[in-house]
Design brief:
The structure is a homodimer of 380-residue chains. With 380 residues, chain A is of the alpha/beta class. Chain A has 13 helices and 17 strands. In chain A, strands 1, 10, 11, 12, 13, 14, 15, 16 and 17 form a nine-stranded mixed β-sheet that branches. In chain A, strands 2-9-8-7-6-5-4-3 form an eight-stranded parallel β-sheet. Chains A, B: This is DSD1 family PLP-dependent enzyme.
Chain lengths: 380, 380
């Protein structure tokens, strides 16, 4: 199907940009001499993940057991489930391992570690568990010097569970916006995770994997001594938040929402779009950054940026496109001529993970304008 | 399946609360002597809509043609597609009408009106179109006194399109929070829409339907003279935004997200949940209201509210539950005992339409704790 024929709203992936993003990250990882395990939560789409693996990725990271089940069914065996394990989910994890999936679990507390050990013992299964390390205080994990680190390591190690490694995610990198700050956090993430592995090893617990990453720290890292692998997700498509963080240009953003102008409020300088928050998502990540892009940055159908305009508001199925400055009266007066009913536009989103999740499929667009449908899934 | 067995995160509907909400709205409409056409965009779920129709609803309102197709396939014929028509979507509308669907379209501008007339002429189809009226300046529509109203009416009427009525949505009601302001806006919505119908009729254009509504104005209206029907959506489940608007209590909220505690950051007084923004949605509607509920209000598994706690932060698959006040050190110290790993909670959401859209299904829970799965769909 040609781009012009796709019904709106629709989530478009620019294949050339996506491939460039994949090559950039994989090339950087190759240079740093680490393997790369993409986080597939961004797209939940086998077509995208196949491109990441074709470029050199080794295994995948998932955020839900549904992702693990779907990607294992599609032939991917090496899977890290990177959310601390809820004991009630162990039967699903066991089922995956019994089918031959090399599923690795994550814990950051003694209760979950004990539950995995007990469940594994009960079912005769040797689970592999990675311990989550907190290197920036933004979410989960055990800080490298905490006693709990060794406590959890011992509960696993002494009760028939394989300690496969340590992992950390310096997600506070999303709040930074200078190369220096990103490089410093990348080093903090590396050093903290390596230190946690060292402590476990000194306690007699093998810890083969040392896994770090977020898109900004992965791209900012200049040396990863002691690290075995890196994880990142949103780099594959990028978005306006990542642009503000400073790790991509607007021209790198591979995801956009195709929309149609369906009306105007000429007095207010508004064009009404058929992409509201149900299409863009409610993610307004750039509202806390240096450049607030509202609900998204408008572009022409061919991808040309439209500086001076923004999606300034959204209802469920209505977006409001308007000039970025209230005083831009000339642009406001011109709104019905510049954006007539029926005109199609593309909107760059705040957050690729959130926007993608609003759609059952992507339309992957080749440079010649031909598109194919790539399914994605939702749920847990 | 019993409530205790449902895997987390999951979207729960409390059936008794939902039925109470449905009965309340339908009863109010009956008293006001108007028919009620629920907006099914909130749930996109045939099981919910069947309950609305069983209670007395006449026809439905949809926000996408996919909803129209799905609900028509499920046996509902009287459908208002309440978003101004994009000309490129006319073939799908035609296909529905050719199958016997009594689909009504909406326009608020001459371009779309002309396109519908031309397309109908070309295909020998008499479309029915309702004209969208702007009664509160918050989004789309033509104000009652604008010349455009009659221009659009004439384009339709003189070119073989049936003008079926006028419709308006005073969505700015979501920004109010006193009974007086809501009642005043309800009257403004009524009067503006009735006036638009009067102008069309005086111009010789029949305008049988006069359709108004939003959940807050529908519940606040005390007389609806000249109105033939009311539309509302979120009332069926309610949410924290509607609580802050003042049209429901916390105990009326029928939607919650079931979640499991998966860890802690004890020093910070945080319990980590397996419901992040992917489950709760990124909707933070209460952040602009008198009471900010963060990403949601925690409750025990049995629905008992937990005042003094809030979901204060969210990553994609991690929620952060914490005391509402930083100085609540006793609560913070107590976090690991009060909310142990494995404990299940229910979280009331900011916005039922946005949270529901994150899930492929609801788990509808009866008073005895038994649940059934109600499918919902996404996309356009």
């Amino acid at each position: 199907m040609k781009l012009e024929q796709i019904e709106t709203p629709a989530a478009l992936i620019d294949i050339a940009r996506m491939q460039k993003n994949i090559a950039r990250m994989q090339g950087h990882m190759n240079t740093l001499n680490v393997t790369f395990r993409p986080h597939v939560k961004t797209t939940k789409c086998i077509d995208v993940v196949r491109a990441q693996i074709a470029a050199g990725a080794r295994g995948i990271t998932v955020s839900t057991l549904k992702e693990a089940e779907a990607f294992f069914a599609a032939g991917i065996g090496d899977i890290l489930y990177a959310v601390s394990m809820a004991p009630s989910k162990l039967p699903r994890a066991l089922a995956l391992r019994r089918q031959g999936c090399d599923l690795k679990l994550v814990v950051d507390n003694p209760t979950a570690a004990s539950a995995i050990a007990a469940f594994g013992d009960q079912h005769g299964e040797t689970f592999e568990v990675w311990i989550e390390v907190d290197t920036d205080g933004h979410r989960s994990g055990i800080t490298p010097e905490q006693d709990t680190l060794l406590e959890v390591g011992r509960i696993l190690h002494e009760n028939g569970v394989k300690v496969g490694g340590v992992m950390t995610h310096a997600g506070s990198s999303y709040e930074l916006d200078t190369p220096e700050a990103l490089a410093a956090l990348a080093e903090q993430e590396r050093a903290g995770c390596v230190r946690a592995a060292q402590r476990l090893r000194e306690a007699g617990i093998a810890c083969p994997a040392v896994s770090v990453g977020s898109t900004p720290t992965a791209l900012a890292a200049t040396q990863l001594e002691g690290v075995t692998e890196v994880r990142a997700g949103v780099y594959v498509l990028f978005d306006l938040v990542m642009h503000n963080v400073g790790v991509c240009t607007l021209d790198d953003i591979a995801l956009s929402v195709l929309t149609t102008v369906i009306g105007h409020q000429a007095d207010k300088g508004w064009a009404i779009l058929d992409a509201g928050w149900m299409a863009m998502s409610r993610d307004r990540g750039t509202s806390r950054q240096s450049h607030d892009f509202g609900y998204g940055q408008p572009c022409l159908l061919n991808g040309t940026l439209l500086p001076g305009y923004v999606v300034s508001g959204a209802n469920q199925e209505h977006g409001i496109l308007s000039p970025t400055q209230a005083q831009a009266q000339a642009q406001a007066d011109d709104i019905t001529q510049r954006f007539p009913v029926g005109m199609k536009l593309r909107i760059l989103p705040n957050h690729a993970c959130a926007t993608g999740a609003q759609f059952p499929e992507y339309h992957a667009v080749a440079p010649d304008g031909d598109s194919v449908e790539w399914r994605r899934f939702q749920g847990w």
